[in-house]
Amino acid sequence: MALRRTDYAGLDKIRYEAVGIPLAGSQCWPVEWWKTGMAAGQPGQGAESGNQRLLFHNQMAVVDRDPQALAERLSQHYRVLDFAPRQGHEKNFLHRTSTCSAGELLLSCGYTTPIQGTIGEREGVGSINLIISGAVRYESSRNQYPIDPKRPLFFSPGEEYNYTISDHFNGIVFDVNMQRLRRTAAAMAGLGVSERRFAVDLESMRAIQPTDRRTQQLLKILIQSFSMLDHPELESSGDLDHLGIDELIYRTLALLLCPRLETLLQSDTKPRSPREQIFEEVVEWARAHLHQPINLSDLEKRSGYSRRNLQLAFQQRFGCGPIQWIRQQRLEQARQDLLRPDPNDTVAAVANRYGFSSLSAFSRDFRNHFGLRPSQVLREGKRHGEPT
After folding, report:
1. S-S: 172 plus which of 4, 130, 294, 381, CB 3.0-4.6 Å?
2. Mean pLDDT of all residues belonging to the chain
3. How far apart, in whole angstroms, are the C-alpha atoms of residue 131 and residue 151?
4. Quick one: CA dihedral 49, 19, 24, 229, positive or negative?
């Protein structure tokens, strides 16, 4: 079934809540370097063989056997330009997927039988596909990226691409915020390094081949971070967010995808200066107190920075001033609460929780930032929270 091109710009802005479709695959990785990172799964709903076991939430996997219904549902969140089972595999179509939130990331762990399709361009959104087993071929307008045991990670910076899964796919699929990825690389490089320095590193589609021990170890860490997500009770309580697994994932990807970052880190092995350490502590304090009033004077007192230097430090690190950054963080935390609401949560209650005294102003800012009304996100959160 081919889907006509549609503009999903509004829904793309809540891309982290989309239920992902597996778009990658490879043969099994060499056991000696990835095995210790994989959590043992148990057969979930619809499991017929070992290669269908998912890396996390296997027993809670959702099973789809109707490709058209699945494609139409996915098109609500992605620019799905084409999607169909491969010829000869229509009757045996099977798609199993489980999802888990890690901060602003929504990770989809999935298994699918042979399919092919096209994902449209999405500005500011990168695609990460990490393979456990299977086989796939990606194609852009200029190149092909066959995935095999030597190339277990596929990255697209938001470009349109075609994919063909010839046998099966089992792995992890998720989107990343490209601006956050650049900012993460800049933060790791040290205070004063501009995120623009890493734009060139992140502008090209590629497959990552672990040809050296460093890359092998980083891919192992990425796998281990996903295995940490297999704790549904921690996810429902919100404790997974406090562990900062999304930050670990972003940092690992920055090291894998940004050669300039590796060069900078190798050329400057000095520990952080006291001034840089103080700034990091202020940032962490602000994140931990988003539910309380925070003003510039509070940040000045905790950091010892002058107001001018505080503005400069936040601009270099986050691309905005401190008050704007705090407002963005509060909007993000409000979005997380709307996605995982308590039974009696309302939009007004969540807004008030993070210091938004005006409901109309909160709704306006939320829609400007994410492209959707907070009430829409709350409905989606309550729908996903309903017992199945």
Report:
1. 130
2. 80
3. 9
4. negative
Range(s) of the chain covered by CATH 2.60.120.10: 9-243
Is residue 204 pLDDT above 50, yes or no?
yes
How far is CA 119 from its chain centroid? 17
Residue tagged 């609460």 (tokens): 337
Q: Which CATH class is domain 271-385?
A: mainly alpha
Give the contacts of 64 (CB within 8 A, at least 6 positions apart). Answer: 70, 94, 95, 96, 97
Instruction: Kindly report, as residue ranges, where domains of CATH 1.10.10.60 are found in the chain.
Output: 271-385
Question: pLDDT tens across 276-288, in order?
Answer: 788 888 888 998 8
3-state SS, one letter per residue, for the chain? CECCCCCCHHHHCCHHHCCCCCCCCCCCCCHHHHHHHCCCCCCCCCCCCHHHCCCCCHHHCEEECCHHHHHHHHCCCCCEEEEEECCCCCCCCCEEEEEEEECCEEEEEEEECCEEEEECCCCCEEEEEEEEEEEEEEECCCCEEEECCCCCEEEECCCCEEEEEEEEEEEEEEEEEHHHHHHHHHHHHCCCCCHHHHCHHHCCCEEECCCCHHHHHHHHHHHHHHHCCCCHHHHHHCHHHHHCHHHHHHHHHHHHHCHHHHHHHHHCCCCCCHHHHHHHHHHHHHHHCCCCCCCHHHHHHHHCCCHHHHHHHHHHHHCCCHHHHHHHHHHHHHHHHHHCCCCCCCHHHHHHHCCCCCHHHHHHHHHHHHCCCHHHHHHHHHHHHCCC
- What's the CATH code, domain 9-243? 2.60.120.10
What is d(CA 134, CA 166) in angstroms, rounded to the nearest whole number?
8
140 phi/psi in degrees, rounded to 5: -110, -170
Count CB neighbours of 6 within 10 A. Answer: 13
Higher local confidence (pLDDT), 214 or 5: 214
Chain segment 305-347, per-residue pLDDT in tens: 888 989 988 888 788 899 999 998 899 889 888 988 888 899 9
